[in-house]
Amino acid sequence: MKLIIGSKNPTKIQAVENIFPGNEVISVDVPSDVNAQPFSDEETRKGAINRATHSLEKTPDAIGVGLEGGVMYVEEQLFLCNWGAIVTKDNQIITASGARIALPQEIDDQLKQGYELGDVMDRYANKQGVRKNEGAIGIFTSDFVSRQEMFTHVVKLLRGQWEYFT
Ligand SMILES: O=P(O)(O)OP(=O)(O)OP(=O)(O)OC[C@H]1O[C@@H](n2cnc3c(O)ncnc32)[C@H](O)[C@@H]1O
Ligand SMILES: [Mg+2]
Question: Non-canonical purine NTP phosphatase/PRRC1 domain location, by residue (predicted)?
Answer without folding.
Answer: 6-155
